Amino acid sequence: MLSAPVTGYNHTSAAINRFTVNGAGGPNLGPHQGGGKQVCCGLVPREWTLGLRAIVEWEEDPDPYAYGKWAEAPYSDAWRKRMAEHKKNYSRHRAVVDIPQYTVAGVLKVHFLPCNQIFVSADNIKPGDPRYPYNYPMSMEEPKVCPSP
Predict the structure, then answer these.
(1) Number of H helices, E strands in the chain
(2) Does 8 score more than 70 pLDDT?
(3) Three-state SS letters, 80-129
(4) 31: pLDDT confidence band, cut at 50, 70 and 90?
(5) N or C: which end of the chain has fewer CB within 10 A?
(6) Which sequence spans correspond to the domains of the chain?
(7) Range 2-123 has CATH code 2.60.40
(8) What is the 3-state secondary structure (H, E, C) of 18-30?
(9) pTM higher than 0.90 for the full model?
């Protein structure tokens, strides 16, 4: 096994407050952001094996800019009360996903797409390279209703 930095790409309008991949924490991600921060470290096999999977767990805030519109003074008792109500809208998710074949192990990259679709790679290829398996636009259109799994 090799240690691998963890990074994320959020292709949605929600904020990813926190996430883990196989238990290793990743950076928080604002809407339509990612790739700029890495957290150390997850583990990846030196050599890819058939059936390699990742468990991704995350928390998202569907309205990450709401507090900027509040009249309450930041961090006042009224603000904290409103924030507690806001946090009730956070959702927590878990997905088990396949990791595509790689020849050289690299950064654990987690992509958050609309409708809680998750993709993980563990190669040394950067997004944008034609060989990279998940070249999605950072700002993806989100359907009003997600298809059933």
Answers:
(1) 1, 8
(2) yes
(3) HHHHHHHHCCCEEEEEEEECCCCCCEEEEEEEEEHHHEEEEEEECCCCCC
(4) very high
(5) C
(6) 2-123
(7) yes
(8) EEEECCEEECCEC
(9) yes
